[in-house]
Amino acid sequence: MLRDAIPQRRNVPSRPHYTDYRDDLRTDFNGRCGYCDDSDFHCDPICFHIDHFAPKSRFKALETEYGNLVYACRFCNVRKSSHWVGLDPATPNDGKRGFVDPCDPCYDAHLSRSTEGAIISRSALGQYMFKRLGLHLVRHQVLWHSRRARKLRDEIDLLIVRYKQSNLPNSAIYTALLERYRDLTIAIDRYEGQAHE
Q1: What does each C-alpha distance from 53 to 39, 68, 105, 129, 181 come to in angstroms?
Q2: pLDDT over 70, % of the chain
Q3: What are phi and psi of 41, to 5 degrees?
Q4: Phi and psi dihedrals of 175, rounded to 5?
Q5: Nearest CA among 141, 189, 150 for reference residue 36
Q6: Helices 171-195 and 138-165 meet at what angle, rounded to 10?
Q7: What does DSSP say about strands 49-52 and 69-72: parallel, antiparallel, or unpaired?
């Protein structure tokens, strides 16, 4: 599976401009790009784009249709641009070329992750999306690892407390090692945050 959670668009009130949906999209897409699952953790959410799944340049009537909007990182949005196969906004692909709406549960049938976190295609349509969206970029794998390290850090914080409270042999050594790991991942988070500012 590519993503930890499948984004789900809620029914939200109509708004006059598609940018007025930014907060709703961020919530519905779990603060992550609908296409690559990169988090906006180190980004000002305003740097994340609002993609028109069926491009607004080709289907103007869908410009403010919430069901056509995707919270997307700038990398995926710029690569996808106004690409679309066919002339019908309701037909996003022909089975081999095109896109799958990220809110469609079958999205993960076409794209997945290797055990090392690299995005991989699982079908001909997945290969098309992989190439068109630039999902080969190492940044997607690095950000996936960074997210895993933050989750692991939360578990390590609990272990540090347990070791400090225990009388186990070598608990001071284990505590020091875990604290070094925690501090290192915090420093990496700070560095990544500064690199994106």
Answers
A1: 19, 5, 16, 13, 41
A2: 94
A3: -50, -45
A4: -60, -45
A5: 141
A6: 150
A7: antiparallel
Q: Name every residue whose Cβ is closer than 8 Å to that of residue 70 and which is 6 or more positions away in sequence.
A: 25, 29, 34, 35, 50, 51, 52, 53, 101, 102
* pLDDT tens track for 15-53: 999 999 999 999 999 999 999 999 998 676 678 999 999
pLDDT digits 0-9 by tens, 103-145: 999 999 999 999 999 999 999 999 999 999 999 999 999 889 8
N-terminal to C-terminal alpha carbon distance within the chain: 30
Q: Which two tokens stand for residue 64?
A: 């403010």
Q: What is this structure's pTM?
A: 0.84
- Which spans in 74-137 are helix H? 74-80, 124-133
